[in-house]
Amino acid sequence: MITTYCHIRNKTILLKGETIFSNKQSLLGDFLINAYDFLKPNYPKFYKMDNLSKLGFLAAEVLLRDKTIKDYPTDAVAVVLSNATASLDTDYRFQQSAENVASPALFVYTLANIVAGEICIRHNITGENAFFVTPAFDAELLHLYTNSLLAQDDIHACLTGWVNVLDEQHDVFLYLTEKQHHNTGIEHTASALTKLYTQ
To answer: Counting Cβ atoms within 10 Å, is residue 42 exposed (0-12), middle (13-18) or buried (19+)?
Structure first.
């Protein structure tokens, strides 16, 4: 069952459709810092992250704030993410920095799956993780892959979603599925994901 979900679009963070934070007039970088200051996660490494990791980090912070995954063994939670632009936003910045002196701080983020790593470190998740690059949000892929993980005896929850950014354009949809919540939440189907993603 999908027990909670979060969007970040148009410089607005929503949890289950309710606005948590909005700063539409700012540039994306300023919005991310302001959202971090608003949420107060006390995680100084945030400032070193690229925009893709910051978006994923903030969505996970909002998503998991009231849904503790600490009740599960650390290896019983999986992370499955996808996007269309991989790490292109950071790749452009790294290429520009390489014209003078290449920035090792940017180079670290030239892999799209670093966002999954940042979320796993923050929330002490050691279960399986995967990152897919697809032309657009693919509800069927996320549904099938997440369900295949949840079919395993040792996986009890999965943090799944779409984290995409290129320049000022950003689109994040993250959700949590849990096995033990059979009667609460939204059934985890591709059509339900499409509906939640587009709301």
So the answer is: exposed
Instruction: Tell me the pLDDT tens digit for each residue of 58-98.
Output: 999 999 987 778 889 999 999 999 999 876 656 555 555 55
Instruction: Write out the H or E segment, with its range, that includes residue 30.
Output: helix 28-39
At 67, which CATH number?
3.40.47.10
Which structural domain, as residue segments, surrounds residue 144?
Answer: 2-198
Percentage of the chain lying above the pLDDT 70 cut: 85
- pTM attached to this predicted model: 0.90
Please report which confidence band the pLDDT of residue 140 belongs to, taking 50, 70 and 90 as the band edges. Answer: very high
Residues 6 or more apart whose Cβ sits within 8 Å of residue 5 = 15, 16, 63, 173, 174, 175, 176, 196
Which one-letter amino acid corresponds to residue 133? V
Average pLDDT, the chain: 89
Residue where the block lists tokens 């790749």: 91
With tokens 């290129």, the residue in question is 166
Structurally, the chain folds into a number of domains equal to 1
DSSP 10-21: TTEEEETTEEEE
Convert 165-197 to b/e letters by CB count within 10 Å (16 or more is b).
bbeeebbbbbbbbbbeeeeebbebeeebbeebb
Amino acid symbol at 7:
H
